[in-house]
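#lab-general

N.A. 3:47 PM
ok so I finally got the sequence cleaned up, no stray characters, all 323 residues accounted for. can someone with queue access submit it? mine expired

B.Y. 3:52 PM
send it over

N.A. 3:53 PM
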Amino acid sequence: MIAILSDLLRPNAATMDTYLTLAERILAEQKRALSALEIIRIAYREEIAPAHLTGRTQHKTLQARLSEDILRFRAGSKFYRTAPGKFFLHALKDDPSVPEGDRRPMIARRRKRDLPKHRALAFTKPIIADAAAPGGEVSMESFIGLIKQGCYHYAASSKRLSKDEVLVWSFGVVLKAGHVLTYRAGPYREQRDSFMSKRVIGFYSPVVENDLTLFDQADHGVLWSGVKALASDLDLYEDDAWRALNANSKLQAVVYPDQQGEEASLLAVVSFLCPEWYEPTSSRLAINDLEWLDLRSPMNHLEDFDPWSRTLLPVARRLALGG
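B.Y. 4:20 PM
back already:
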């Protein structure tokens, strides 16, 4: 069931290319930076949108594909951002007829990924409490069912939650030969005191409204959010690594951990079974001391791990050992 869902949630390459081709054509014609919504509206106004592009969230899908292309290819992408949510073409960057402000790519910080997000995916506590089994795990069928039934809402920000809100996080774990990749957290991730200098077994990010695209309806983009977090934190942009990440990442489990004073969170575990040839590296200031943890051996010093990692270690062991 999970494998089938993962295959269905992966975007079709031809459709992705159609979105990017359409964006390139519209931007070249308009000679100014545009948002994804503006590009889609112009395409329909000029009657050049392909008939097979359907759905009410096409602009979100386009924005996600443009963002993915820029994320993966960086300076090699045909596109760049001039401001948050605004895109333009490298090929026209030096064209004097283009507005000056659109000829300057937006400079984004690279060494730290800021996590507070607007329009973050959330549920209410009663809904998740009813769905969670003893021990906190929510079955995949229940989670997908809640998404399908529209039982979710969007919090104003991942930093501003009401007492009744449960924020959804994608939590990417990297597995290889019975091991899980761990790191020691620096000044990182929501500034949780309980995470500082602790060892962490995953790379996580809040799921947001823009993760819901044409390709990610069933799980609201949780899988895609986890893939992006792993790619960003571990610099998985080279062709072989990117292909391996997309081919071997799956949404595996959803857990509602005991809160113990922390804000309520729902952790959606995305596993990346990395190939033997791949050895992760990261140059980010917020990720230190990358190290493989052998899950075939008894755990010692659990107090060295952050609260989420302590909760998810049994899940990671089950996935790593094929249980």
